[in-house]
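=== Structure Prediction Worksheet ===
Name of assembly: unnamed complex
Input type: mixed (protein and possibly other molecules)
Chain count: two
Listed entries:
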Amino acid sequence: MMKKLFLSCVLLCLLFYAHAQQVIITGVVTDPGNAPIPNASVKIRGTDKGTTTNDKGFFSIPTSINAVLEISSVGYAAQTVKITSDKQLSLKLTESNSNLSETVIIGYQKVTRKKNTAAVSSISGRELANLPASSFDQLLQGRLSGVNVQNFSGAPGASPSVSVRGSSLLSSAYDENNVLNSPLYVVDGVPQPTETYVGPGTGTGLNYLGGVNPNDIESIDVLKDASAAAIYGSRAANGVILITTKKGRTGAPKVILSGYAGIVQRPKLRDVTLGVEERRAKLAILQQQLDYNQQRGLPALITDSLNPAFNGNTDWQDMFYQSGNVKNADLSLSGASEGGASYRFSTNYYDEKGIIKATGFKRYTMRLNLGARALGGKLDINPIINYSRTDKARGNGDGNSPISLGASNMPSSLFNLDPNKKAFLLGQYDDNLDKNISNQFNFTLNLSYAISNHLKITSLTSYLNKNSRRDYNRTNELQNGNGNYSYTFSDNEINILSSNYMSYVNTFGKHNLSVVAGQEFTYDQYQNTQASGFGGASDQIQVVQGFQQLKIGAYSDYQAYGLLSYYARMAYDFNGKYLLSGSIRTDGSSRFGENNKWGFFPSVSAAWILTEESWMKAVANTFSMIKLRASLGTSGAMPTENYLQYNLYNVNAGGFNGNGSAGTYNAITAITPNFYNGAAQKGLSWEKSKQWNIGTDIEVLNGKYSASLDFYNKENSFGLFSVILPVTSGYDVAKTNSIGVRNAGVELTLAANFLPKQSQLKWFSRLNIAYNKNKIMNLPNGGRDLVLSGDRFDKSHILSVGSPINAFYLYKTLGVYSTDKDVPINPYTGTHLRNPNGEYRGGDFQFADLDGDYLIDVFNDGLNPDKMPVGDPNPKITGGFTNNFSWKNFSLGVFCTFTFDRDVLNLFKADRFSNSTDGDPYNNFVRYSIPDLNKINIWRQSGDNAQYAKYDLGTYRYYYTSAQTFFLEKGDYFRIKSVTLGYELPQKFLSRFKIDRFKVFGVVDNLAIFQRSHDLPDAEAVNSYGEYSGAGYPIPKKITLGLEVQF
Amino acid sequence: MERKLSIYTILLLLVCIVTGSACKKILEQTPKNSTYDEVFWKSGRDYQSALAGNYALLRNTLTNKNNRYYLYGDAVAKNYFTIDYNGDGLEGIQNGDFTFKYNVQSLGDWTLFFKTITMSNLIISKIDKATDKDLSDIDNITEFRKKIKGQALFIRAFTYFEMTRVWGDVPLVIEAYEDPITAPQLPRTSATDVQKQIEKDCKEAAALLNWGYTVKSERAVTANKGSVYALLTHLYLWRATMADLNSKVPNPADVQNADTTLTRLLAEGGYSYTDTSNYYMTFVGRSNTATSPEGIFQLYMDDRTQEGSSAHIGLEFLRGAEYVSYFGNNARFWVPNSYFNNNYQFWYWDGSQWTRPLDTLDVRYRKNFDYVNSAKPMCRKYSNVVYRNPGQNLDAYLSNDMVIFRYSDMKLLQAEIALYKNDLNTAIQVINESRQRNGSNPANRVDDTYTRDDLMNEYIVERGKEMYLEGHIFFDLLRTRMYPNFVDWLSEGRFARGGFYWPVSPSLFKENRFLVQTSYWLGKI
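=== Predicted Assembly ===
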């Protein structure tokens, strides 16, 4: 069926093939001061054909008499010329701040910003260049409206969380590595495989986007609404981020050398009490809460202040930090020959040494982009070759914490470290091997053949090969004397994509039509192998050798999927005034069963440019453009598992309590169905996201001011979710299309060039702000609330219809009981309000007794009648504020980002007071570091009107549970993210040395943060569940100096 | 020019179409990292592995949550061993309170039992459909089919038997669902019907299986006709006594059934006692050369094939470096003195007065316990420790099978049956024979001066010695109605209301509106 459609489409297009008189038109494009404008775009209206000017402003293009040329260049107003003869043209462009003639990429096609009917945000690669970040996704923060980026970890090479117009991912189990669904990244037309088959603890934990050099990026376009994204169909439900890399430019060969280097500073450490102060504070608490006998049993650590082993003043946090540095070097060569062959080669080296010992990140990249023409200019050949290698050192190797001591169990400062102990704690950083290397090779070939001026066939083939490798080794000492441990991991992924489409562009009088139709297939295969050995005999062995057979583990895996797609888009406009666009895509996936393989994703959008109307001419001088647009469409998402349609079995399923790894019964391999989630899910279908968007784009005074406003509503339905199966079926859970999530919001971008055109000083300012609210609309099993499993002991998140995703699930803290008498009394029994382990007393936190039974239920496995869904861990307002100034040869950029209206649960704070469950609370209290109690209003004796409850020493009343509103904080922050100062040496001076450009610049990254919470060290360093546990990597400040030279 | 153009066009189109149709194939990706239903069940080997999987699931079920088999069968009987407090609340069950959330959510949850049953159902349905071609790697296909199906039936029957002893009424599934996703929610089926199904399965299994074992390594750790008869005997006795909780008179028909089944088992099973000089052999299961001749059915947990357990019930008791090199002097489980007083003390006329010494001569006293004079005596019945790190004596596993049915168990049941039939002489004979065999103090014997009730008490004392920590005692006490002397929390009133059954975990009610709570626990959870 699809094939026939495709064929008839082709035939139809061929019919339009027409003839006209061919001429070669040449011309020169200059600015008002007669200086040539290089790289200006020259296009024949109504066709797909065009060229660009060389560095002398010269162009040449074959066309026909009566054709209309459109000439445009960024920073200038576009011009059109009608060809009447074949004489050379001389075109002068006037300067303009308007960006309407800029093109945006919307998938398989480019359109001008003016004619765009969808919600797309774009930035130019210039904004990202030379900023000290290990991957470009970190730099997107605050630059694109509707794209929420949180750089919650400052670890070199870390992946930030990125979501476009909110997340719709719901999962019944807590998984810190999989909280938000990330958008689809498309690099030069190639959708990147995003599947992660292993967690960061198993694999290398490297950011797969880390291999893209930010300085190679020409532009980034984000397709936010369904009308734009639907062309990527099944994977577009969470937005699409299109990255276009730089190409060779016409003109003489150009060499750009740039580099920067700088320091990475650690942020302020958390407050701790040290030495004498700590001893006094602890003794005060102990003497108050313990009787004489208990006090006699206290450990010497606290009582024996004269013992040289215990009179320390050790700041443990301090030991793990160092000052880091960052270095970066870029080289690029580009140029083009007269014949149309162009090239660009670039290479990059980035090296960051982290602020925590043994952490760091190195990146090496190489990219070659070639362009050539054949068959009389009808065939465009554009191969792109890209190679990158990243190397990440990750400290202790835990996916979420770079250091070996948990933040909440830092030892007491009183311990004096003997050198061995210190070596044990820190020694791992010297002897511990943890090498994480990832290589990525990518070859893309773009072929496009112009059948006529209107019809073009494009074929894109891409081959991507990724492999990564981890080598990990821990010494005997670090393994508690049980012998050394070695681990090795290696994986390989290939991704083959072929996309073939034809595009047709034509003009019929005032009717402009453009059509794209094509077909695409993707095949992805992933394999990994890992091996480990424990209890080894020699620390010198750092590979898996020399271990007893029993102590060796090995594992390998194979995963593959295929995707077959057909797509078409039609864009029509009448006189550039009424715009209409529609697209369809249908995807077949190997991940679904026979009857549900195919998904269908249509979209439609329309726009009306009011300023093109004759009755608007009166205001046209002020409002250069007012556009209203609306769109509606559907896009999809797939499950991440490849084989859900099969009834999967577990081999070596002999495990039992006491021997989880048993694989046999009576030495015969045990095989059972995967009774957890292995039932064949043949009925599973695509997740669908239906989205409408209405928006407006306004440009005032030819781009002096511009604004863009969007309202949207995105309903994700048929979301995949694990539902519980009947126990008697033998299976636990199966995925079904059963959840619904709504994300709705507003996005506003305002830009201004405040100062007049003539002014020497230029000031460009752009503010973007987005509000997104997410809400769970449907849950399986009749909408029953679901407490996330696998969370920490306190289980502080819930999925509840009407609440945002992963809302907190907390006790409501009312205050601190001043005295025992303040505890409410149950009128039926005469006992005080209690929990199952005892009655509350003065000094305890008062929790709201929501079900009124005078018992605060402490159980966490499921719904708790005394806890309630509260707060929203998802940031609601995000955005950025850009200000760029330039004066003569100086430039200054100040970039700020912000997040408002987010709740954060401060687990770290809770943990520092909670000692309620330890078997030996006094000892535990004495041995670990405590916060500075003098700085807080903590309950000390009966009658105190305190803010903090008394220190919990093994009461089992859990009043310092982290699951209470007392620890809920405001996560709002405003960060001055980067300040860039640049100076370009004068051209006159440089020309003597044959240098085109010489720029020096300095960057301060992460200059300052203003936040509402006083207790969070950094309101951005919070995981995607809105939790601060103290374990993450602090976000450092970077100061760099650099230069850029162009020959 | 014109022709050239169209040639290129057609060529390009052809390329598109060819690739288009070729890549239809990429939509069919089959797993290589797992076997799956569509390709499994194609050889005899597959069936053997599936059956091993079924046994493994049963083993997983019974060891789950601190070895729940012993918690249901021994721990709640209270006076046999003591569980110390450690914060998880498990010890609460020893006082008859099954409501503590962590306990009811684990021990009240029958999910794992149903995984075992689902596996049996699957094997039964698949083996019936298997063609001879599928089983072509097997020599004697007819015999193989019988063996596979018989064992799957046995596992299903045994699993239901354990469930019905714990919960009474339980949902009954005997079909393999084609599509588990559309499987219905089920109510509880009455214990009577469940027991009928068990009886039916046992009879069918007995017809399919043989006495004895042709393969030595399968002895006792896989089910044969003897295992089925042992189960059937237990089922009949349970049904005879527990069908009517208000009656102390067992159902004579089922007593008779038990009698004939047991008689045939003892006559034809080929089982015998292990020599008491080789006492631990019974609980190890298998040595290098021989398998314990007592074993009728036991779950394989031998660490010589890495199937030992680091959380074996035995390890809960063991302490001291002489048992496990790196264990301290504390163990969570220990044997209270009341156990010895109840089971090993006997009245004895020493010539001048009545005394009540301990029968320390009994092999079981000597072999099963250590530190008997301390405040917390230790059970060492299961103490076959194997170090997986033998160099440093670390990583201890117990290599002791989980004994479910054995010859001594069956021999003692003869006494119970006899007592139900008022055949006191047989009972006396069985009890004395057991004492004799275990080297008990010759003064510690029963005779015809004992009433039926006295004998029942002596029988339960004998079970307490012989079947200590084998998952039977509590059920013995219920059947024989001897619980009032041993289990203080179980009053006759509570017994009559089924208060010894376990409540069902509240989590199972979540999706199932047909499910009702065990009647005694209604309103208590």
